[in-house]
Specification:
alpha/beta, seven-stranded mixed sheet, five-stranded mixed sheet, globular
Length: about 375
């Protein structure tokens, strides 16, 4: 059973989070993500959850980690400037394997930039913002409906793999209103619990690379730190321990990528050219491809930006012997690097970029694609 509801993107994020079992939210007001905190402050107490507004962005991320360690599914939401401030805690959560969801509603930057205008400028920050090699999952919705479903999926991945998950939304879909089916029956994941207090290791090397997780106060003895640590969580300066730990942290995502990666392809069968786009930009591109405005052109939409669906994209490129790939994005060029890294010199990758705080007009994409398809290179 499902219920059809008209709602805003930020509202759908909260509904999805609560459906997934989120019972702790810590945040700080920032446009264009403020509605998430406002709605959480009303909705969470009604389902037995906790809402807290912290004194700043760093504190809200730290409180989120505390809520997760105490056993609650936890979330915070922010925009570009606050996302920058949260990076230290995201690194801590990655090293300590704390399941949590961080929503970033992108706005124009850098610095305080354009607080209420659209941007897709946080792609690189979402994947590499915190220092060091670290496991991270990044998901990017394209509609109000996918905000709802991917928020639920973000919590599932976070709990299943003991990892921070970034939900990367842009201002357009966060503030638009669309009809959403709120499914009554959705499969949810919970963190793996330990079987014995006597043999419990908070960072045990298991076959699936994901250690069981106890909550603070349940009577299990364990230690949490951002330092390199052994299976019990205690700091270690051993080079072997450090190498083995990082291997496990990275491989627990890489070895499960088939379960994690989500993407969509439209009109790719027999296409000669390909567009790769995410978020709100993919919506306009989908219309152009389906309406036949761009002949012989397919569309690839990555819903998972990290890990990137590289294998799936390369299968389409190789199958169709594609020579030109267009990457429209609301930044100076960030997603394009993933595509260029994959294809190398085998085909031309052309960026179509806009970063003035406005969305693409359909004619802008049509003109740029056709100019390059028929007249050679055009990289404005």
């Amino acid at each position: 059973m499902s219920k059809l509801v008209l709602m805003q993107g930020n509202e759908a994020c909260v509904e999805g989070a609560i459906k997934a079992g989120m019972r702790f939210y810590a945040g700080y007001p920032i446009s264009p993500a403020s509605e998430i905190a406002e709605i959480c402050s009303v909705r969470l107490p009604k389902v037995g959850g906790k809402f807290i507004q912290m004194e700043d962005e760093i504190a809200s991320a730290a409180a989120m980690v505390g809520g997760a360690l105490a056993g609650l599914k936890s979330m915070t939401a922010t925009s570009g400037p606050g996302f920058s401030l949260k990076q230290e805690v995201i690194g801590y959560a990655s090293m300590a394997e704390v399941p949590c969801v961080i929503v970033d509603v992108m706005r124009g930057g850098p610095s305080t930039g354009l607080p209420t205008s659209v941007s897709q400028g946080d792609v690189m920050q979402s994947k590499w913002g915190t220092h060091g090699d670290h496991p991270i999952i990044v998901m990017a919705p394209t509609s109000v409906s996918t905000i709802y479903t991917l928020t639920i999926q973000a919590f599932n991945y976070s709990e299943k793999y003991r990892v921070p998950v970034i939900l990367l939304m842009d201002e357009v879909i966060a503030h638009m209103r669309e009809s959403v089916y709120l499914d009554e029956e959705i499969e949810l994941s919970d963190r793996k619990k330990p079987e014995s207090k006597e043999s419990f290791k908070g960072y045990e090397y298991t076959n699936d690379l994901i250690p069981p997780m106890a909550a603070v106060g349940e009577g299990y003895k364990f230690h949490v730190t951002g330092l390199n640590h052994d299976e019990f969580g205690y700091p270690s300066n051993s080079n072997k321990v450090a190498g083995d730990l990082l291997d496990r942290l990275l491989n627990k995502i890489l070895t499960h990528r088939e379960d994690i990666v989500i993407y969509d392809e439209i009109n790719t069968e027999g296409c000669k050219n390909l567009i790769v786009a995410f978020g709100s930009v993919s919506r306009g591109c989908k219309g152009l491809v389906l309406d036949g405005e761009l002949e012989d052109t397919g569309l690839f939409i990555p819903y998972t930006l990290s890990p990137f669906p590289d294998k799936e994209l390369m299968e389409i490129i190789n199958k169709n012997n594609i020579k030109k790939i267009f990457v429209p994005e609301l930044n100076a060029g960030q997603l394009i690097y993933d595509v260029q890294r994959l294809v190398g010199q085998n085909c031309e990758v052309i960026g179509i970029n806009k970063y003035c705080g406005e969305i693409f007009e359909p004619d802008e994409i049509i003109r740029r694609v056709k100019e390059d398809m028929y007249e050679g290179s055009f990289n404005g």
